[in-house]
Every structure is written in C-alpha cells, then in structure tokens.
Design goal:
This protein is mainly α. The protein is built from 14 helices and no strands.
Length: 345
Amino acid sequence: MRHHTLLKFLIIILLIAVLFVLNLLLGTVRIPVGNVVSILFGGDGGSEVWKNIIISSRVPQALTATVAGAGLAVSGLQMQTVFRNPLAGPSVLGISNGASLGVAFVVLLSGSLGGMALSRLGYLGSAAMTVAAIAGSLAVMSLILYVAQKVKGNVTLLIIGVMVGYLANAIIGVLKFFSSEEDIRAFVVWGFGSFARVSGDQMLLFVTIMLVLLPLSVLLSKSMNLLLLGDEYAANLGLNLRRSRTLVIVSSGVLVAIVTAYCGPIMFIGFAVPHLCRVIFRTSDHRTLMPGTMAVGAGLALLCNLIARMPGFEGALPVNSVTALVGAPVIAYVLFRKNKRLVSE
C-alpha cells in the first residue's frame, strides 16, 4: 500500500474516532465532558439519568451506526461491482424490500388478526419485527439466488430484482389499506430507519455478527477485481463466474438483510460511499476499496446519527432524511468535480 493511501486511511480512522466521541458527548440532553468520561470509565457520573443515557443510548447508537454504515457501504460496492452499474445499491435486488414486507406482515396484520398492535408489546414486538425482517429479506435473497442460477446476464437478474421490489411494495400497499391507523404509523416509523433501536443483548449480537461478516466480505476482493475485467476475460483467467457472482450477491444480501432487520431500511449510504471512495483513493482495486468503503461508511453513518440527535431538536430526526441531506450534495459535488477534471484533460 502506497504511503499517500495509508495516510488517507489514517486520516479517515482519526475522523471516525472524533465522530464516535462526539456521538457520546452531544445529544438532546447536555452532559458535561467530565461526567461522560467518568461514566465511561465506571464512575457514577453525578447522575443515574446521565449514566443511563450514555450506557444505554449513546454508546449502543454509536456502535450500531459504525458497523451498520460499514456494512451498507460494502454491500453497495459489491452490487455496483457485480452488475458493473454505478446506479446499483444494497436495495437493487429487492432484499431490503423483502425485509420491509416481512415487517409489514407482522406489524400491519397484528392489529387486524390479533386484536393488538405490535407496537404495544415493547421488547417482544421489537424482537418480532427483527425476526420478520430477517425472514423476509432472506426469502427474497433465496429467490434471487435461484434465479441467478437460471439466467446468465446480469441485466436480467437486475431487472428481476427490481420487479421483486415493486411486487413487495405492492403487497405492502394492500396490507396498509386493510390495516388500522396505529399499525400503519408503527410501520411508517420503522421505515424511517434508526440506529437507536438496537440496545443491550441485541446490540452485542448485531455488532458481533457484523464483525464476522465484514472481514469475510474482504476475502472476495480478488474475485471482484476480476469481475471488473468482464466475464470473458475473467473466465480466461480461471474465475468461476457463476460461483463468484453468487458469493458476492450472498455477501451483499446478508449484510443488507442484517442491517435492515436491526436498523430499518437505511438508504443512500450504500449507493453514495463507493463513489466517494473511488474519488478519495483514486483506484478501482478492491483490495483498497473494500476497507476504504468500510471506514468511510462508518464515518458517514456516525455523522448522520450525530446530526439527527443534535442539540436543539426534540427527539431525533429520521436517519434516512439526514443521510440524503448530507450525502447527496457531497456526491453531486464529487462527481461534478470529477467530470470537470476529465473535460479539462
């Protein structure tokens, strides 16, 4: 790894550390820095309420945002590579729509069939939504993998994935029509996306799963580099196209399925971060891009979570709104600057 690339990584890691600390220090409730440090190192921090805010809310949110942002960014990079399409993202195959469909079934039907809104069940309701999201996303991913074995072209698979997403949204629309207002509100709130839903044992399980999946995804860097060369050239170099494409889709699908199940559908990070990393590192080598997207994705998610909880706001803003507001202008500027440089050359 060249020296300037290593320097960029060090700067990004430093920014992540700063953003992580700011996520612990800043929020709707003002807590003095000394008290935050005392609480983190096992002290009483001067208030039981402050201790509960730091340990039970801000630390889990910061950890969740870090690993979720990294996972979505890697998933987006994998989708853009396997389809060789800059507009591809984690939701391109309808996997996140499958998660939404699973949650829609348990949330929107709970009041109609069970007589009680799932949102009233507290932890049990949250666990049911997580399980439903995982089941829905994995069901759609299984369907996509089955189709991938039957079709040869990436474009056909991409179109089928988009159609699956439309079908899932259509079914969700029908369920909304027959559901109560309270159930619809609970589903809409889930759809906003949030890093605040994961805490306690759920947070430990989520972070552990992601810390296992993310390093495994890096092992696909060589195959992804060959896929960029085109199917014929990659096959001539000895790459098993079907197996490699399936592994990349599985890796991307599992990452987005787990993140969506625990945090809801978080948009834009998976689409934007790979483009941003290609400009930052000026390379298409996935041995650099994979760790790069993890780091930048984690940093962007921490920044969005910080803005969503900035002092002065009542409660927290929807994460999806913040990701688009922060990321869209940055990506537009980066792409415009890149295009301008190419024209000048």
